[in-house]
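User: Structure please.
Assistant: Input sequence and predicted structure:
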Amino acid sequence: MDKRRIYSFGNGEAEGSAGMVALLGGKGAGLQEMTRLGIPVPPGFTITTETCDEWSKAERKLPEGLFPELDAALARLEKASGKTFGTGENPLLVSVRSGAAVSMPGMMETVLDLGMNPDVAQTLERRTGDRRFVWDTYRRFVQMFSNVVANVPHEPFEKALHDAKARASAKQDTDLDADALARLTHEFKDLYRRHRGRAFPDDPREQLLAAIEAVFASFWGKKAMDYRRIEKISDSSGTAVTVQAMVFGNTGPRSGTGVAFTRDPSTGEDRLYGEWLANAQGEDVVAGIRTPRPVAEMEKELPEVHQALLQVKETLEEHYRDVQDLEFTWEDGKLYLLQTRRAKRTAAAAVRTAAEFLRQRKIDPREAVSRVEPRQLMQLLARVFDVKEVARAHKEGRVVARGLPASPGAASGPVVFNPEDAEAQAKAGKPAILVRRMTSPEDIAGMAAAAGLLTSVGGMTSHAAVVARGMGKCCIVGCAALRIDEERNLFTVGGREVRRGDRISIDGFTGDVILGELATQDSEVVEVVQGRRNAASSRVFNDIDMVLRAADTVRRLKVRANADTPQDAQVARVLGAEGIGLVRTEHMFFAEDRILPMREMILADTVPARKKALEKLLPYQRDDFIGIFRAMAGLPVTIRLLDPPLHEFLPETDAIQRAVAARIGMDLKELQERVSAHQELNPMLGHRGCRLGVSHPEIYEMQARAVIEAACLVSAEDVVVRPEIMVPFIGVARELEILRKLIVDEAERVLAERGEKIAYTVGTMIEIPRAAITADQISRHADFFSFGTNDLTQMTFGISRDDAEKAFLPDYEAKGILPENPFAVLDRDGVGGLVKIAVERGRMEKPKLKCGICGEHGGDPSSIAFCHKVGLDYVSCSPYRVPVARLAAARAALT
């Protein structure tokens, strides 16, 4: 038997239901379900998405099997409506609307009033006695059919309408009389004939078939395809087409049309929210030709329509247990629903409604998790600009450049070009925007002090981007339009000079760079996290907390945070982190009181001299670890031993080199020679990570001692401590074997000296492809694996993460070579394949081997879904991404 292509609905009976979204599209399934619920819906039928797919594969030819079904469906529609399509004393006009399985608002096409021709117009004139209504409807149909079906441009029609209003001294189209509208309809038909070379079609069946094909074609239109690409929606299914009896909102002041949400889509407040127009059809509201009015104003002017709409709101929310987006029309005071679908909403509204439905037990935790997108949570954590101020800046031409929005938020302040000035501005209570070509670890204090960060080069996982996200700080990177002159303390953009002290604003949501200062404020959630606001007084914080607690009951993956300071650790804990997955010890050495002994250690030419400098660093490391252990009491803390090449800590400029030489008592020339000796042609693949520990074991010995001494001291306070020591950049099992013994020997010495028993583990970071391939050998010496996917991605692809995003990755994404930036979203086939191999081979040797991820991918929802799939135990991300990761891990468990 040939498959079914059409499902009808009307007069309380429906052949489809809400569960048939994939087949009938969102619009069709919604109409079928509303019909079942007894909500007034104009009768109609839906042609399936599978038919669209057939049409596309058959070189855009409608399947023969559709035509008998279409005739039968039209006959049912005529019976349900009591009207006849294209003829008779009670003519039937229809709308033809798109409706894909996944909502794509405004991306596809609609044709209204189809079936109109000269004979039908005459019949409707006699039947209604309203000549103006008839010709208003006719001219609307001709224009819409011409635009949508025949691809005749909009502009000539708009000009003709403008000229008609000018001739009649009419302010808007509702002021045109019947004669003016009749003339306009004939003008529109002439426009069609001139552009198409033939007369406007009068056969209603020909009109209907052409409109169905036009709606199918709109699924493959550029704007719809672009939308699917941006929103990551599959192209595999087509659109359904719904044909429905017209209800006329343009019959006079007691008719009209509108759109509404069952709750405020901006705030989530439980109130009917929307707009309406009297004496109008639906496209008038969408097109913005006339200014619509708030739904609240209907209560006085059209109380019966407003009350009916409120009843529909209650019925649909109770049934769907979610916020609905409605389209409606009323004709002579009678309400009809034309669409219901899940409402798109802001982050604040999504969280609030999910939490309220959860509290009211209308949904369970799994449903609550599905209602909020993980990325939406970042919007509730970041600083924000006032939207009116942003609009004004655009209007005044002050938005001068756009870079990559690396870390969301909003920041304003004076421009500075070096970290010292950023610190000085912060101390003066005037945080600045730190503008650099790129940042380095040496800039960390200035970065922490700055209100926001702006770089002209670098990508979404550059140093500036990674550190900014960890700090929850607004950051834009790779803003190539900037020409930075740090010597002269200025940058140029678009022919304008911006000097030190000039004020700018940066928008970490869009990547916009704006001249002048825009007021910003912390989000309510951040105020609670930082202890500046009581949690009980913050509805949004409690709503987020409720949704995340629901997520925690669903997810399997643990969520940790990357944190380098006690303050970061405390923030992470408040946001629900279940431990620290990465403490980058190198970040602890850049403070002013630590960088000098660090440089002494690196520049030393004997082991005793190096150990002497390390003794000065030991108390600093120990104190930092004490603070982190206290903040994470009872939770695991993974501490990565020194990783970056040593040259990053050394002075670069002559002035700093002179100062360092004087302070450590070294000849300047000798210092410069030693600095030069540490330079490497490719330092990121050179003397770094475990290679430092092998060459200079005293470095890792000092760090191991600092970790265990700190653990002993905190344990003595009756605080449970769970240290995990991680060796970076392992590529060969023998490296880890040697360094594990070094670490364990030093740890046991400390425990013996102090008479303590502290449980600790030693593991490694898998970030070299060879380590993943030989994971079975490496796991013999490791208690855990943590995947450093930033470097693993870099080395698997053989590309520089800092350069590729600027040089060629955008082209690769645009040409479909890579679906997404692999430094932002984990490459599942290549990098992910190595992760999968490492987990499998590591657990073949050690079945209970703990495996996690601590690269930037640990905060990306898609990457988290992959981590769940391959059986990792945890993900670790920046502190302010912990809520995102908790929710993403739960959604991964659902799918």
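The chain has a mean pLDDT of 91.
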